Structures are given as structure tokens and as C-alpha cells.
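haha ok so turns out i had the wrong file open the whole time. this is the CORRECT one, sorry everyone. sequence first:
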Amino acid sequence: MADPVTSELSREALELLQLERLQSTLNRSYRQVKFYRRQFERLGLKPDDVQELGDLTKLPCTTREDLSENYPYGLFAVPLRDIVRIHSSPGTTEKPVVVGYTAQDLKIWLDLTARLYRFAGVGREDIVQIVLAPGLTNWGRDLKAGAEHLGASVIPMSNLNFSKQLMVMRDYKTSVLVSTPSFARHLVRVMAAMGLMPADLNLKKALLVAEALSPEVRREIETGLMVETATAYGITEVLGPGLAFSCSVQEGLHFSEDHFYPEIIDPASGKSLPPGDPGELVITTLSATAFPLLRFRTGDLAVLSAALCTCGSNLSRLRISGRCDPIFSVGGIKVHPQQVSALIQEIIAGGPCPRHQLAVNREEALEFLDIALEVDDNLFSDEVKCLEAIGRRLRRHLRENLGIESRVSLVEKLE
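then structure:
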């Protein structure tokens, strides 16, 4: 289903809209955000020096480390009295990610989240059930609000187990499942154990978010649930879900270029790359009032194509292929290895962090972080129960701080 806002805009009109919004964002960032004003002054630039979209490359990129160094409100462009919502998430640096929204920001955010549902073919008559891990609470809240803004009925995230979620799905006649690929695959397995058939449910669609979706996993979910699938892309630092989303053609994700300007750069040199070349996705907000970001490095490897889609939308299409940094995903939650090391050291008090190895594995389609800890002199104890307690504390610590599930093994020597 084409979106009227974007299908009626020509590429030329869209680029004019982008430039107008970009210049407004640059002026606001220069006036209101000390961090960005210092960046401009260091380079001897003024916002007026950006006369066309390509001139944006004159500015340096913003990184997650910059967000951490300006924690909590250093990058806000409006006074706190104008902020109506503050989102916080663990992020992938030492400090949490803090994003602020004005009332106008929230309206745009709702419109964009409702847009991803429309592109997926979801309408007012649908019943949407959201089944996500607790670590994706922010995404669950956003996707709930977007579906409500669209006018659909919503069954929000809850702490029900998978069999109870399926019971609700059957009895409440859910038509749209919102979940991660790994959770959706696990639901298929629980269905089989319960003796449920796809025909026992009213599901028509599955919107799969937060994780990469391979063709094989897509086919498994579509066959196991007898649904059409759609996907969406987003990052916590920039809106969350709603950045990009699939359409019925399923040839890449349409990027919300009317509110965000995308670039592809060489991850090593930072040089801007032409459309069609693979590289790191960089995003500049165009309409965010409270929390503007200029050339934010996402760490996601991607290809951007402006070729017209047969669905009717003029929005460019994005294909995500991986990461160009050490960050990895566990059940859709981004984690940096240094975060894990820091949490291990908090548990192993009184000494250096022991050597350890990390690996993301699956059990019953659910993702876990497997941690192998080398039992050095600092960690060694004659009491097996003391060593076991370390594993229990570490698993709880990771769940509480990062929202991920883990399995801990203690080994004599790591290879």
C-alpha cells in the first residue's frame, strides 16, 4: 500500500523538502546545542555554508561516544520545560542513551510509526498483538502507540509466557503479530507442542522487528504461521521503529527521507559513497526539534538505492547487511563487548576482569549470550557452590542492566 504523503512527492520535491528542513535543523543546532556550535566554529563554518544536500559532508559525524560525553541533556536543543517525554535505554556505551521529545516530535513519531503499519498492509480493522522481550520495552511502547494512532486494536506487551500468548492470539482473534524473528520462530515451535495449527488462529500478517531476517527464517515463519511478513528498521538514538519499513514488493526497506537524511560512507575513511555502494549508514534528523542529530554514525552496513519501487513510493530503499563495529545483537538488543566486560568486573569484585569469550547462540530459536569465564587465581574457589553463585549473579546482572538472557560456563583455560 503506497503512502499518500510520499507517493505524491516527486524526487525533486522530496529533495527540496529535505533541504528546507535540513537548513532549519542546522540553524537550530548551531544556536541551541553547544556541542554542534563548537563543531561548526572549529571548522570555520556557519549553517549558511550548507547550500545543498551534498554540502552536509563538510560537517563531521556524530558518534555514540559523543552522545555519552554529552549525557544526559547536552545535545537537547530546547529547554527542559519544552520536553514532554524523555526516553532512556542502556545503549552501547558507559552511559544510557537519553532522547527527548517535544509535543511536535511525538506527533511526527506517531505518524511515522503508523506509516510503517500502513506500508505493511495493517489497517483500522486489525487486532495487533505485540510479543517482545522485556529488553525491547521502548520498541514495544512505540509500536503500541503507532498501531493505536493508526486506529487498530492493540494487545500490548505483557509478561505472559509463549503458550499463554498463543492462547490470547487464538481467543482474541489476533490478526497481526508484532515480534522479533527469533520469538516468532519460537512461537511456531510452541504451537506444535500445544497441537495448535495455523488454521486455529486468525493471523494474517507478522511484523518482524529488531533483528535481521534471513530468507530462510522468513520462509519458516510464513509457513509455520501461514502469514505474510513485513519488516522494519530503526535505532534507539533516532526515533526507534519508523526509520525504514518494507512494502508489499519486499525489495528493501523504504527510508523515511522526508524526516531523515541518509548517507552511506566508507567506515574506515569516512568518505561519502555514491548510491548503490555498500558502506556505513549515517543519519541526519530533519524534523526533530528536541534532539537533532547531525550525521549520526549508526554502525550498520547498508546499501541505499533511489530506484523507483513498483509500490508507488518515491522513498529510497535500504538494505542492511551487518555491522562495521564490535556491537552485536542478542534477541534484538544491541550490546557492546565492553559493556559485558564491565558487568563481569562488577560481579568479580576486588580484581581484574577475568579472560572471557562471548558467543551468541540459539536454543529453541531463542537467542542467548554464551559467556565462557576463565577461572583464574582471582576467581578460583574450592567451593563449587561459590563458583555457581558467580554464574547466577552474572546472568541476573546482565538481565537487569542490558535486558538480555545469558548462559555462563566456567573453564580452566580459554584457547
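The longest helix spans residues 11-32.
again sry for the mixup
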